[in-house]
Each structure stands twice: as C-alpha cells, then as structure tokens.
Design a protein that fits this description.
Blueprint (H helix, E strand, L loop, with lengths): L13 H12 L5 H10 L7 H12 L12
Helix pairs in contact: 1-2
Length: 71
C-alpha cells in the first residue's frame, strides 16, 4: 500500500476560490486572503484576530493592503 506524494499538498479549488472571493466582496474577509489563495492554493497563516483587525481597519477607511510580510 502506497500513498501518493502529493496526497497532502494544497490543491486549488475554483469553487472554494469563488466562495472566498464572495466573502471578500461582502466584507467578511480582506481581499489579500483571496489573492493569497489564488497564488498558492492555501490560506494565509494569519491568526483570526489579525484578520479581524485588518477587516476593522478597512471598514474604518484604511486601505486594503496585504500584510507587511507579503509585500
């Protein structure tokens, strides 16, 4: 019995991408989450508290820039 080497590798899912994009448009997630998923097929490793802070900053009129470590 063997397990394929790519078994646990992230896989891009267009349906998931669409759901993430719609959540971003609705203001539930920052746009960089969708952008990161589009580029890597994975979610950013940010803590949920950090994502909430970015959403609040955007809602307060801040720009929707990616996190400092992704620039």
């Amino acid at each position: 019995f063997t397990i394929a080497q790519d078994f646990n590798k992230p896989k891009y899912d267009p349906t998931r991408s669409k759901l993430i994009y719609e959540a971003c448009l609705a203001g539930e997630l920052p746009m960089y989450v969708w952008y990161h998923y589009e580029q890597t097929g994975t979610f950013p490793e940010d803590k949920w508290e950090d994502i909430v802070k970015k959403i609040e900053k955007r809602n307060d009129g801040g720009m929707n820039y990616p996190p400092d470590d992704e620039e």
